[in-house]
Amino acid sequence: MISGALHLGKNRDLNSFFKKNILKIVIILFSWNLIYGIVGLINGSSLSDFIYTFIGGHYHLWFLYMLLALYILTPFIKKFINDPTHLKLFLLISFIFGIALPELVDVLIALPSRINTIGSDLNHALDSVGFGKIIGYSFYYVLGYYLHNKKLETKTIKKLYIAGIIGLLFTFFATWFFSTAINSPTVIFLKDLTFNNVLMSIGLFTFAKQHTLKNTISNLLIRMSKYSLGIYVMHALILENALIYLPPIPIFLDIPVRAISCFFICLVLSFCFHKIPLLKRIV
């Protein structure tokens, strides 16, 4: 959504956009896929695992692949959404096929008896259409642009906040209720491409847009944001190869300790990478 707000509204030269954004992601993916592949070999992975990681990326790098696809489509999306009617039509279609129907499929498939066959048939139909996840994430991409540029009245803003809270409550209670009903944990409502997460994203995005503050904390966050990409690409490396050596600690402290430790280790490493010209290009 932030990428959509930043890129879809700008009239930038196509060549500079490709060099600055698309080429940058390609270089980062190539470099870190190679790094994670080599680390895997050192840890005992097979050559086929190395090739798989080098081509498909480590599990957490999926976001860069999706972002790369959205950036490639950006010039075409921009032309399509220049017209307000086309913009709303794009949001409607991408929401139906990228958010609503896939979530309905997940719910139907998880249900018992004959209902899950309906979900399987619907899933097959969607696969046949061939939209894939790109249509769902393009919805978020364009939605960020739409919310960023639309002037919202106070009443509308409050409604969007309420929608975000409803999305949060729905996520909690639907996950609890559905898991209890099928007697098994479910992550259906915890996925990115779900209606409840759309509501939460809209509420949070609107809140951030309306409450941009200039203070010590925001200035610190702005300075740290320079190193956020580096933190993102290397955090799995630290979690899987460094923090596994942490001494045993109570379970309620384990995740917070690992998260905080991982963040600051990656922040320091990203800072150091930025000081080295060659390594700066991959963070």
What report would you give on this structure?
The protein has 283 residues and is an all-alpha fold. It has a domain at 214-283. It has helices spanning 2-7, 14-42, 47-56, 62-81, 84-110, 115-129, 133-149, 154-182, 195-210, 216-225, 228-241, 251-274, 277-280. α2 (14-42) packs antiparallel against α3 (47-56).
Task: Give the tags.
283 residues, mainly alpha, 78% helix, 0% strand, globular
Quick summary of this structure?
By secondary structure, the chain is mainly alpha-helical. The chain has 13 helices and no strands.
Q: Work out the helicity level.
A: over 70%
Major β-sheet profile: none
Q: In total, how many beta strands?
A: 0
Instruction: Count the DSSP helices.
Output: 13
Mean pLDDT: 89
Radius of gyration: 21 Å
Distance between the termini: 21 Å
Share in β-strands:
under 5%
Shape: globular
Q: Give the uncertain stretches in residue-range form.
A: none
Structural class: mainly alpha
Q: How is this fold's topology laid out?
A:
Layout (H helix, E strand, L loop, with lengths): L1 H6 L6 H29 L4 H10 L5 H20 L2 H27 L4 H15 L3 H17 L4 H29 L12 H16 L5 H10 L2 H14 L9 H24 L2 H4 L3
